[in-house]
Amino acid sequence: MNSENHPVSAFRSKIKSSLPYTLAVAIIGFVSLLIRIRPYDYVFLSSGFVKFTSNDAWYHMRTLNVLLENYPHRMFFNPMTNYPAGSHIHFGPLYDQMMAITSLILGLGSPGQDLVNTVGAYFPAVLGALTVIPVYYIGKYLGGHKTGILAAILIAFAPGQFLQRSLLGFTDHHVAESLFSTLFMMFFMLAIITAKKKNLRFEHVTAKNFTVLKEPLIYSAIAGVMYSAYQLSWAGASLFLLVTLVYAVVQYILDSFNGESSDYLGFTGIVTFLVSAILILPFVHPDMGFSFYYYSWFHVATAIGSIAGFAALSFIQREFKNRNLKAYYYPLAILGLGILGLLAVRIVSPSVYSLIINAPGMVFGVQTGGPSTIGEVSSMFFYGGSFTLLRAFNNFTASGFFASILGIIVLFVSVFRKAKPEKVLVLVWSLLMLFAIYGQNRFGYYYSVNVSLLSAYLGGLLLEKVKWNQLDEKFKATVKSPADFPGFLRFVKIEQVLAVLAISVFLVYPAYGAALMQSNGSSDPDDTWIEACLWLKNYTPDPGMDYNAIYEAPEDGELFNYPDSAYGVMSWWDYGHYIETIGHRMPNANPFQAGIGGRRVSIDEPNMPGAATFLTAQSEEEATAVLEAIHPDPDKSGARYIVSDERMAVDIFGAMPEWTLDTEGYMAPFWTGSGYQYLPSERYFNSMESRLHILDGNGLKQYRLVHETWAYQTQGEVVYKQIYNFLYKSNIPEVDSGYVKIFEYVKGAKITGTASPNETVNINTTILTGQGRTFEYSQSTTSDAEGRYEFTVPYSTEGPIPGETQFDTAPAGAYVVSYGDTTREVRVSEEAVLNGEEVKV
């Protein structure tokens, strides 16, 4: 036997020929990792505190710590958020499990918190760097090694959503979504390539011809595993199921028109989703019904439905061929089958039918109302009601985005000429991801993979035009050592140099430059929020919950049984995870958009109690009614503390009325000397958010400032105070105050006394904050016909008491009650404030 044809020799030769590319991909992956760990100093603070980026990262660290505390049991229901309802956890379990297993291995079974934090911080960067591998292989099978290498380089540098969600400290499952969905597409592509190459037929299955079946079967099974891994990273993984099914329909139709069998595709689809159905089954929670957001029967049903779909498409195609029917009837048969399938689902399960019908709108449709204010789910192409490409350029660079569009067009032409399955798959995949970012810009972390592949595909075609393969062969033939390299250069042509230069300048360098700019680090969460949450943890009463315990979800229709000591913390939903994870307190609203309240469809709906309803309330009485309505127990309120920051008061206040669908009148045109400008109006200053943050709660009866952080020079707060003084002829100090402020909702002490009948009575005191800032607190009332008057005041003049709020903001002296020529000082105990006791003057 010729030694070159020996299997071992052939294997060694294959390894040797692929070694340079393997080494290149490894180097690219390492560079990708280096870019992602650049924000080290922003994450690992000199104080030893690990500052995870953005809100969901903190929630993942919360679920990770609970998992490690109770390993291998995971938290499924969390009563420590969305108080007083709690929330089922829709996050997939895989991301936390991977971090937990890594921590347990590195910690020899008992990892310390520092190790867990380090693993959590590095995990997204490592997964982001690993994405280079499947992108390389998809590029390789799309256009050869050169396309694969270029695609790997481009995804390594890809800016925008993909980079930001895979940076050090961004401990969220989105990067796992990107990695596993790309691995799924890679193995699915390999499965259909090998199955078609071997001319696989269903007869090979019945005949158990493993020579033909072996390779496609392995790739299909691994594709199923990767789809399950993707599903277990994100419950909404049906997005890529849709990609696969749309591709399958297109491919079946193309094969029918070309007179080719699609058994290879049917076999691949059936095996892939059979494996995924088996693997997802243990994670289904039957009590979730057919929910799209939680692991439910929906995920099993869609996998089984996909198996049935591939089987039906293959069966119909075979029948068409056996009966010698015209190919152009095949799409009509598929359409009819789809309609009949939907009708059947509608009859059997209306809830599943509703999910199927509404799912495309949820993913591809542009959000309106409150959801349109959520940064990651707003359209990439619309901002402020106007079309824009700036977000796309920021995510993919201008050249990268336009290269992806051109790549889609060129790929479409190539498919039109010869419908290779791998090219059809990438084309359909890219088009659907483009539609996805039209609906929600968050899916930019998916489309970055497509941009890299499409751009690399164009670059590969350019290199083919300049005969790069010939140069590659010359290199292999002439360069045996570094000394041979100068001699090789004489084979390089000017057009080849220009092609590489064009690719570098228009594709690689813009992505690299944007990646360096966007990987400097993040200030989210702001240091003031960390300080405020740590203050909540250390200086407010323990709510009586076991923070790291696993709690059972209540029965349907029932509420979780909280201890009497439990209470909520009201703030805008953005900050819920910080309050829970850093502050160990229970937020009413969270970044899952739970607890926001308001309306969703029409202004005619009831304005449900929640964060939006409370913060936009037009009086203290209205706000308190909202707070009381949040809790179903009439003797309890929904929250004890309210946390606000300058951003809520100025930058994002407009998002709050969007959730109530009552947006008019918060801004009004004012003449400023150089023209009309829209500025905060009376309705804004009447809102509870303004009363608390801009006015420090002055005049409120049951809300007191108990802590504030240091101030920033924000300008926004100062301008708003200037406008307030102008509108109300007031003189509040036009300065920046604490960036984050914590207020407490109390019963309030009842200060009572007598004066002359129908006389104006005033009460005031100077409040001193923990930052050394002072402001005036005052109220005014009129005595009744018998001369009696009453004030409800929220501040204690005698300081905190054990077991209650250890506030650092309080009156600098006694309250002063004044009427006519009379002034009296009144001191109020903390017990009187908390219990609503009467204090007589």
Task: Please name the defining characteristics of this protein.
Immunoglobulin-like; elongated; 33 helices; 19 strands; Rossmann fold
Break the fold down into its secondary structure elements and pairings.
Elements: H1 7-36, H2 40-43, H3 55-69, E1 77-78, E2 87-88, H4 93-106, H5 113-130, H6 132-143, H7 145-157, H8 161-164, H9 174-197, H10 202-206, H11 210-231, H12 238-257, H13 263-280, H14 297-322, H15 330-348, H16 350-364, E3 382-383, E4 386-387, H17 390-396, H18 398-417, H19 421-439, H20 444-465, H21 468-478, H22 485-488, H23 494-518, H24 527-539, E5 568-570, H25 576-581, E6 586-587, H26 611-615, H27 620-630, E7 641-645, H28 646-651, H29 655-660, E8 667-671, E9 676-680, H30 682-686, H31 688-694, E10 703-708, H32 716-728, E11 740-745, E12 749-754, E13 760-768, E14 774-782, E15 788-793, E16 810-811, E17 815-819, E18 822-826, H33 830-835, E19 838-840
Parallel strand pairs: 5-6, 5-7, 12-19
Antiparallel strand pairs: 1-2, 3-4, 7-11, 8-9, 10-11, 12-15, 13-14, 13-16, 13-17, 17-18
Helix pairs in contact: 1-5, 1-7, 3-4, 4-5, 5-9, 6-7, 6-9, 6-20, 7-20, 7-23, 9-11, 9-13, 11-13, 12-14, 12-19, 13-14, 15-16, 16-19, 17-18, 18-19, 18-20, 18-23, 19-20, 20-23
Structural account:
The strands form six sheets. This protein has a five-stranded mixed sheet with strand order 6-5-7-11-10, with helices on both faces. With 841 residues, it is of the alpha+beta class. Among the domains are: 173-371, no CATH class; 527-743, Rossmann fold (3-Layer(aba) Sandwich); 747-840, Immunoglobulin-like, CATH 2.60.40.3390. The mean pLDDT is 92.
